[in-house]
From TrEMBL:
Organism this protein belongs to: Pedobacter nutrimenti
Pfam family, one: RteC
Lineage of the organism: Bacteria, Pseudomonadati, Bacteroidota, Sphingobacteriia, Sphingobacteriales
Protein name: RteC protein
InterPro entries linked: Tet_reg_excision_RteC (IPR018534)
Amino acid sequence: MEKFYNETLYKLEFSINELEIETDCSIQQVETVIHLILKCLSEVKEYILKRGFKNTDEEIRFFKYQKPTIVSKLIYYNTIYKIEARKPYGAKPIKKYLTKELKKLKRFFDNNLDFYKYYRSNNSFLDESFFVRGRHDIKLWLDTYYFQSDQSFSTSHDYKVAKIIANDMIQVYVEKQLYSKTQDNKSVATEKLNWTGSKTAMIELIYALNCQGVFDNGNTDIRLIAQYFENTFNIDLGNFYQTFLELRTRKINRTKFLDELRDGLLKKMDEQDEK
């Protein structure tokens, strides 16, 4: 099962990457990608229904991690297709339109907060209810979508996991669209400093600074701050929203980098005092 899945996912991602390089028209590109993903899902479904699973653990792993990885791509590209197809003309209408799309993502997060916490914290005590076929419990954050799906290839929560993964990617896409033109032509230093610490450390620092409201009296969007740090220190932070969610779910020392900064500064002060 693992070998088949890895090979299938690799072929899909390779095909998508090739299209993104070769195709100029985004709408046509997305249409083609959607067809590729549907074909991939059909092949995976045929394999699963024919082969089955060796045990419950294998079934849970497939519906909790493997299938959602593929389905999330379908949700992502289908959403991007709709966003681009319906995008209005003009800077102000576009900004209003994209802001509305972000609010949709926030609404999904708010409506599914309990499951977000369960999934992001890597809990497993409800996995047999969430990710084994035929064991749904209507009391456990169940979507109407589940009853309309093919239950031979679905569990009560595999689609919700895919939606969570997709929404992270959609948020990054929309944020980039929304704030891509915010950078002006202000002069910058001819020589840039390169960040040599970890991306996680920078993200921890950015969120801490944002919480303190040190930029524009706290009126600056977190995305703008992250984009400024990326440009200034020559680093790609990737999906920093996802990284921050992972920081929040740390069991120990959620502010590791900030603690190290504090300890390092105090040590330096103590050394200077001793001179």
